[in-house]
Amino acid sequence: MMRHRLSGVSLLALAVGLSPQDILAQDNEATTMLERITITATKRSEDYFLLPSATDIATAEDLESRDIDTVADLDRIFPDVNIRSRSSRTYANFTIRGQASLDFYNPSTQVYIDGLPQDSFNLTRALPAELESVELLYGPQGTLYGRGAIGGVINIVTRKPDNEARFGFDANLTDQGAGGTFHASTPIIEDVLYGDASISFLNGNDTYTTTTGEDVGGTKDINGQVRLRYAPTDSPWDITVTAGRGHVSSTEEYFVLESMLEDRVAYPAPSQYDLDTWNFGINAAYDLGFATITALTGYQKSDLDRTIFGSYTPEKQWTLSQELRIASNPDQGSAIDYVAGLYYQHLDFTRNVPAYGQVSNQKIDSYALFGDVTWHATDRLDISPGLRLDYEYAAAEATGGITLNDDNSFTALSPKLGASYSLSDEWRVYGLLSTGFKAGGFTRNVAPANIAFTYDPQHTYNGEAGLKYRNETGTLEAQLSAYYNVTKDYQMFVGTQPYQYLQNVGEVTAKGIDLKIRAKPTEEIGITAGLAYNHTRFTDYENPLTTGADLTGNTVPYAPEFTANLMVDYRFEVESGRGAFVPYAGLTYVGEHYFDETNTIGQKAYALVDLGVKWEIEEQVTAEVFVTNVFDKTYTTYGFQYPGLGNLYQLGQGRTIGARINMTF
Question: Is the N-terminal amide bond of 498 cis, ω within 30° of 0?
Fold first, then answer.
C-alpha cells in the first residue's frame, strides 16, 4: 500500500517540477491559462480548489474532445470511476472509489441535471444540448444528497436560454451508426422571457450476430426537451420550466457465450425492450441579495416494456421530488457561507411477471432536513460542518404466486466535517469525515426463490485527506487524495440469474488514492491526466442465502483496482485565416475487475486508445474525424452464470471510425 501512496506523491511532485516558473515565463502573455473552475454541485457556487473534498469537472469542450455523448461514457475522463450499463442502459452500474451499484434499482451514484434528480431508469442518458459542464463530487454525499449518494454525485450543468438567439446542431456518422443533436434558443420578450428547445437522436447499429444468424444489439434513442425561462433584467426572480420526452427501442440485452466472445456471437434468447420516459421540472430562484432561495420541483415517469431471455417483465415507475433551500451568495464576502433546506420525494414502482400472474408494487416516501456550513475561520482556514436528517417510509404489496402486504420506516443522521487550509497561494491541504445512507426496504424482484423480502439500511463512514495545487500563472492544477471508508450492512443482489433479489451481505471496506492533473504548459498544448488505485473488499461477508459461504477478502464486483485516463491535444493555427487544427489522443485504462462476489466471472485489465483531429474552421463551425478503441480491443462490461448455459457476457464497443460536424449560429 505504501508503494502506491509514494507513487501518487511522486507523480504530483513530478507534475509540478515539469512546469518551472522560468520556462512558463518565457512568453507569459502568449500562454493560455486554465479556466478557473466554479462548482455548483455543492448547491452553492464555490471555487472547487477551496473545497475540503475531491471534486472534478469536465467542460463541454473536454467532453467533445473525447467524443463523450452519454453519461455512461464519463469514466473515460474522470479517474477512479467506472460506469457500465448492466444488461441494458436502463440499469446503470456506477462505481466510484469502489462503491459499486450492486442494487441496480438504486445506483450508488446520483445524477442531477441543473439541480433536479434523475430517475434511475434514465441515468445513462445522452448528455443534453447546450451543455456547459459535468461536475463530479467524489465519495459519500449523505449530508447534501441523502439516500443513494454513497459513491458520489454527478451534476450536469446546462446553459440557460437568454437574450442571445442561438441555433445549432451536432451531427456524427460512424461505422457503428449515426446520431445528432439540434437545439435552438431565443428571447421571447427581450430582457424578460426566453425559451429553448432541443432534440437528439441515436441510431446504433446491431453489434452481435446470434447463433441462428440474426443481427441484434442495436438501439434507437430519441429525446426532446423544451424550456421556458422567466428572468427579467434587474429582477430577483429566475424561473425555468422544463418538459421532456424520450423513447428508447433496443435489442442490446443479448448475451455472448464465453467461447464466442471474439466473434461477438450471441445466444438467441429473445430480448428486446422499449423505454418511454417523461419529465417535467420547475427551477425557481429568488435572490435576496445576501442569499438565494431556490425551489426545485421534478416529476419523472418511466414505462419499461421488456422481454429478457424470453421472459416478459414490464416495469413502471414515477417519482415526484421537491426541494426548498436557501444558500448564501458567495460574492458577499461573509465569514460564514451556508446552504440549508428541506427535501421530499415520492416514488411509485410496479413490476409485472405475467407468466406467473405476479404483480408487485412499492410506494416510498422520503423526507429530509439538511444543512451545510463553511466557516472562513481565517484567511487560510475553512471549516465545513454539515448534517442531514432522513426519514423514509416504504410500503410493499404483491399479488399472484407470492402475496405480500407490509411496510417499514427508516431514520438516519448523516453528519459531515471538513477542513481545508491554505499552505500558500498555490498549495492547499484538506481533511474530511463524511457519511452516506441507503435506506432499507423491500426487494422489487418478488419471486418464489426469495428466502426474504426485506433488507436493512446501509451506512457508510468515510475519511479522506488531500492536497491541491494551482500555480500562480494558471497553467497547472493538481489534486491528490487518499480515502478510507467502511460500509455496514452492504446491500447486494444475491442468488442466481434470473432470480436474484436484494439482501444485506455484511461489511465492505474501500481504500485508495487518486490523482488528477490539468495542464496548459503552452498556448498550443493541453494535458489532462488521472490515475487511481482502489482496494475494495468484503471484510465480513454474511450472505443469508448461502450461510455456509464465507467470501471475506474477496473483491467487490465492478470495482477495478487501477484506473487511469490521459488526454493530450495540440492546437496549431492554419495559415491564411483558415482556422486551427487540434489533433488529440486519449487513453483509458481499466484494471482487472469481477462481475460476481465469488470472483469467478470478470474482465482482465485493458486499455482503450482514442485518436482524432478537430478542425476549428471558425468560432461557430468545427469538423472532426476520430477513431475510438483504435486497436479494436474486445472487452466485457457485464457477465453472469446462467444455469445450463455457463458464463454469458455483454461486450463493450469495438473500434469505431467516424466524423462529426458542429455548427452554431
Answer: yes
pLDDT in tens, 257-273: 999 999 999 999 999 99
Considering the entire predicted model, what is its pTM?
0.89
Residue type, 582: V
Asked if residue 4 has pLDDT above 60, the reply is: no
SS3 content of the chain, % helix, strand, coil (to 5): 10, 60, 30
Render 220-240 in DSSP notation, one character per residue: EEEEEEEEEEE--TT-SEEEE
Of 499, 528, 522, give the one whose Cα is nearest residue 572.
522
Compute CA distances 575 → 88, 571, 572, 663, whole Å.
47, 13, 10, 22
pLDDT digit string, tens, across residues 517-527: 999 999 899 99
Instruction: Record the cell numbers describing residue 246, joined without a space.
Output: 424520450
The Cα-based distances of 254 to 134, 215, 427, 637 in angstroms read 31, 10, 50, 13
Contact criterion met (CB below 8 Å) for 447 and 501:
yes
Band of pLDDT at residue 35, cut at 50, 70 and 90:
low
What phi and psi, each to the nearest 5 degrees, are found at residue 511? -145, 150
User: Do residues 253 and 308 lie in contact, with contact meaning Cβ atoms separated by under 8 Å?
Assistant: yes
Which residue's entry shows cell 427551477? 283
Specify the CATH number for the domain of residue 294.
Answer: 2.40.170.20
Given a cut of 70, whether residue 3 has pLDDT beyond it is no
β-pair partners for 287: 292
Indicate the pairing of strand 109-113 with strand 152-158. Answer: parallel
Give buried/exposed letters for 89-106 (b at 16+ CB in 10 A, else e).
bbbbbbbbbbbbbbbbbb
**DSSP conformation class of 604:** -
Total number of domains in the chain? 1
For residue 553, the cross-strand partners are none
Query: Which H or E element spans position 265?
Result: strand 265-266
pLDDT tens per residue, range 153-186: 999 999 999 999 999 999 999 999 999 999 999 9
Q: Give residue 254's domain range.
A: 2-664
Q: Please report the pLDDT score of residue 497 as a whole number.
A: 76
